[in-house]
């Protein structure tokens, strides 16, 4: 990881180390996307191209990620994730297909699923979806309309079960299937009504952080609870039992 970052910086690329739950990762500017991979391939030895994909970061744009590797020392493998962030209104990035032949297929899939254009790609055409498909399914504003048309078989609120007895407890709020927005943010609109924000359902689906309970940290509450003396038993009017002679 340190060798890769040093090589990128020495080549004049503004690369920074990035947090990652798996392999080491570096962030590079979109304009240096191809140059960074060329340095990593030729100067660092990351000659194996594993995959390329993206993630929808909502208003921040799309984060494109590639995974490179180097095999050496028997079964030992060096891994590196290369990431960049492109704007949502102009999702365009240069192709890696001239450096890594394996990028051809992955860029076609990412173009199809996210709507990201890879400039210079030799054959950027749909790959997996049927002819005539509209939209990009892995964008967070994409509506899974099939789940609107079909009954949702997932978890139900009390009183919504198909086997619930008549007169059961009514539901306080019906659970929407994943991928189905609230009707207030999607659906038919009367003439003249402003169009809804396409990212509103995705923002609404984000679960807020659970608030911490009042009363200090858990360790402090536990220590305080353990140090509290036990209350004496309440007095009673019942006389003590008399010992038998």
From TrEMBL:
Stated family: Belongs to the complex I 30 kDa subunit family.
Occurrences of domain NADH:ubiquinone oxidoreductase 30kDa subunit (ranges): 26-146
Region (Disordered): 152-245
Pro residues composition-biased segments: 188-199, 230-245
SUPFAM superfamilies: Nqo5-like
Biased composition (Low complexity): 200-209
Species of the source: Kribbella sandramycini
Protein name from the UniProt record: NADH-quinone oxidoreductase subunit C
Transmembrane annotation, as ranges: none
GO MF annotations, alphabetized: NADH dehydrogenase (ubiquinone) activity
Organismal lineage: Bacteria, Bacillati, Actinomycetota, Actinomycetes, Propionibacteriales
């Amino acid at each position: 990881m340190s060798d890769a970052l040093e090589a990128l910086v020495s080549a004049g690329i503004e690369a920074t180390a990035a947090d990652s739950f798996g392999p080491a990762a570096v962030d590079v500017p979109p304009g240096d996307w191809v140059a960074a991979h060329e340095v990593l391939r030729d100067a660092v030895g990351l000659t194996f191209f594993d995959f390329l994909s993206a993630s929808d970061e909502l208003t921040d744009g799309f984060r494109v990620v590639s995974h490179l590797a180097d095999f050496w020392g028997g079964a030992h493998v060096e891994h590196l994730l290369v990431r960049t962030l492109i704007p949502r209104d102009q999702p365009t990035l240069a192709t890696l297909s001239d450096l890594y032949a394996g990028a051809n297929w992955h860029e076609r899939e990412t173009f199809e699923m996210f709507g990201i254009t890879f400039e210079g790609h030799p054959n950027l055409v749909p790959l997996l979806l049927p002819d005539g498909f509209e939209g990009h399914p892995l964008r967070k504003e994409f509506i899974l309309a099939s789940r609107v048309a079909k009954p949702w078989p997932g978890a139900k609120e009390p009183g919504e079960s198909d086997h619930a007895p008549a007169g059961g407890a009514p539901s306080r709020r019906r659970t929407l299937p994943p991928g189905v927005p609230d009707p207030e943010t999607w659906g038919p609109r009367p003439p003249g009504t402003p169009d809804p924000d396409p990212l509103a359902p995705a923002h609404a689906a984000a679960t807020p952080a659970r608030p911490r309970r009042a009363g200090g940290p858990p360790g402090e509450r536990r220590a305080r609870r353990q140090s509290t003396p036990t209350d004496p038993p309440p007095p009673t009017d019942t006389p003590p039992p008399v010992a038998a002679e």
